[in-house]
Amino acid sequence: MASFFAHFRRLSFRPLVSRSPRSVAGQVFVLQVAVVVMLVACAVFALVLQSERDTKTEATRRSVAVAQTFAHSPGVLAALRSPDPTRILQPLTEAGRKTAGVDFIVVMDTKGIRYTHPLPDRIGKRFVGTIGPSLAGKVYTESVHGPLGREVQATVPVENANGKVVALVSAGLTVKNVTVQMDRQLPIILGAGAGALVVATGGTALVGRRLRRQTHSLAPDQMTSMYDHHDAVLHSVREGVLIVAGDGRLLLANDEARRLLELPPDVEGRFVSELSNLDPETVALLASGREVTDEVHLAGERLLAVNQRPTDRGGGPKGTVVTLRDFTELRAVTGKAEIARERLKLLYDAGLGIGTTLDVLYTAQELARVAVPRFADFVTVDLADAVLHGEEPTPATTIMRRTAVRGIRDDHPLYEKGRLIDFLPSTPQARGYGSGHSELVTDLSTATGWHAQDPVRTKEIMDYGIHSLIAAPIKARGVVLGMANFWRSGQHEPFDEEELSLAEELVARAAVSIDNARRYTREHAVAVTLQRSLLPRALPELSALDIGYRYLPAQSGVSGDWFDVIPLPGSRVALVVGDVVGHGLHAAATMGRLRTAVHNFSTLDLPPDELLSHLDDLVGRIDQDEDQDEVGADGVTGVVGATCLYAIYDPVTRRCVMASAAHLAPALVHPDGTVTYPDLPTGPPLGLGGMPFQTAELELAEGAQLVLYTDGLIEDRRRDLDVGMELLRDALAGHPDRTPEESCQAVLDELLPGRPQDDVALLIARTRGLPPDRIADWDVPLDPAAVAGMREAVSQKLDEWGLSELAFSMELVLSELITNAIRYGSEPIHVRLIRDRTLICEVADGSSTSPHLRYAATMDEGGRGLFLVSQMAERWGTRYTPQGKVIWAELALPEDNFTPGTSSSPYPLM
């Protein structure tokens, strides 16, 4: 529309301008100049008259003032009483006249005979003027033809003390002098008039120039022709045009706008807010003045596309121009296109908003959230209980649990979330669940089968206003997992067949996500079960350490974090913590293999560095056995690597030896509450091979706490490793008396307020020292005769410990072990007896030759010593030291020498 008018203007204006003999602007200029000249002339004439009037008024006022002043002057009455008043008053009047600027001051008696006058020959003659009012005590002014010519004079009475008029005083000016004063003002008046004429003419010229520019120098007939064309176009186009002023007043409405909006004839000049027949949204738009493009509004039964633009962009007046196009004929087509677009948008949003997590319940809630209120007023999702546990449902049952409820209001009478519902076979839900096909109920009031489910509740639902239902089965891979129910209420139209197809498509997309979440739930449960079965179920009771631990699986998936506490001979304890790279069943199974391997290697009583070397070889072989081209069920190819920390604590010496395979350094809580991180040499991760591991040895004070953990405790996407270690230090520091269990909980509360993103293993061990009175040791010379002395010494020590009943068995075991050391070993030979949860006997020598248990034949003279030891002892074994080897044996204590309910042996059975 705007482009049309611009084209029209380009076509019509220029020819008209070229033909203009005298433009409207020129005619207006001439008229304005004439009016200005006339106004200035009238103003000058008025000023002259005003000046003349003001001058006469001033002369009269001055005459009155001078006459009154002289009449009341001191000495006037006395002079009048004197024999010759003229002699006294004449000089006074002449001096006063000159001083006051008047032409004469005349003093006369009550009969009008002058005492004084500027012309002496006039003294004694009758005063020219009216004296009657003055004799009555009044001031009288008049213009007369006197001795000096035409005069303006004022006459005032002179009264004595009794108020009687005794004389008269008259003062005045000649008209000639008054005219002279007026003539002095005339140049100023004429100059001001000329200046006003120049200024007004200049302003008129500027206004005319602007008018000429705005009218393009058009003549009146040309402008008439242009506006005739304008009106013809404005009222013949098939678009409504409105012009609204900045204050909201409607300035113009063409015929099409009047027809489309059904405006009254007198609408122009009224405020748009007063047009009650218009839609409120349309009125608000017209009054707002905001710029819009093809905004759709209703006007009665018509659908209008409204465009609104401001009129002040080019410096014009503030307001808006509005164009209206009738889209009524396209309304049906547009409505269908809009419905199709909304449905596509709904399906698109469902693809983005459903299945964001692998949680069955949350996915069901996402389906309900997407559909309300864009498709249905209420949505309920019912799933079979087996689906919630990751299993496939059995088709024979129609019992489902309501897992999601969402609606436009919360006071609905539908079954609540979490309820277990057994649908009758006549209900749409049961039919859809059994057949796998959707059920459309356009009128619930006639659905007798649905009413039979719960007559009381169905009546409440009907009374609430819910009138239409779509029950769509949630089906994936041919298996029905549950039902999604879409409800409509109030004034909304019932569901139709097209909407049934949309509901099926919507539920089909959600069914895939629900089935994926179900399978993930099953796999996650299996992985967690496997992982927990591979972790320690209970820790052994120990004298050397007080243990506390925590294991938290990740929020999604399982990984290979693990820990273990392994009792070792000689009351020692091995602490292990590790982390297999990756997640899922593969990582959990690999963790179980590594934990089993550590148990097996620990039975050899290997030092930490050697045990990690063996473990490194095992992980390398596992990597080689994995087919790099095959991807496991969890998407991981082989074992990328693993970390491990292995430590051995000896309560006799209170020393701890540890080695690390790329694992985080442990935290050490000292008895005074301070926390440090020991300087531990860190080796490569397990599985890389080729690099040796190093050990570090620490002496731990009794009551110190050794804290072992995995990286899931201190590291995540929100904080760095160093920050996490400082947080761990802060959580542990300052609480030396806290038990390991309390410390575990405090650490988790501080570092992991929510569910962790990665598995977390935490192991805290408080050290204990073995009292010296429970340890006895002797050096034994390399002489068979020393065996008897050792038997006696051991017997005495057992008597001191109250274990005399074990003297025979211990003497027999000790004799065999010492004899073997003397016969097959080398110096130095050392014997140590330890009373702990068992009675431990250790014989050390400088030889690395390991004895072997064998069965002696009937005729053999030797070979029965270790057999006797194995029969008498609970267990026995050999461990190697840098100086040689140690052969040890353990005997169970009598029942009154250990805590009831605990095993006499701390070693777990493998």
UniProtKB/TrEMBL annotation:
UniProt GO molecular function: ATP binding; kinase activity; phosphatase activity
Return one Gene Ontology term, BP aspect: phosphorelay signal transduction system
Main location as per UniProt: membrane
Protein localization = Cell membrane
- Residue ranges of every copy of the GAF domain listed in the record: 363-524
- Where are the membrane-spanning stretches? 24-49, 186-207
Which protein is depicted? GAF domain-containing protein
Species of origin reads Streptomyces antnestii
